[in-house]
Amino acid sequence: MKSQDDLAQAEEDLKQAETDLAAAKKLEEAAERTIETAIHDIREAEEHRPDAHHVAVEIATTSGFYPKDHPDRLPITQPVVEELERAAKALELTDTTGWVASVDKRTIDPKLSYAQNRLEGCVVIDWGPAEGGGGA
Question: Is the model's pTM score more than 0.85?
Answer without folding.
Answer: no
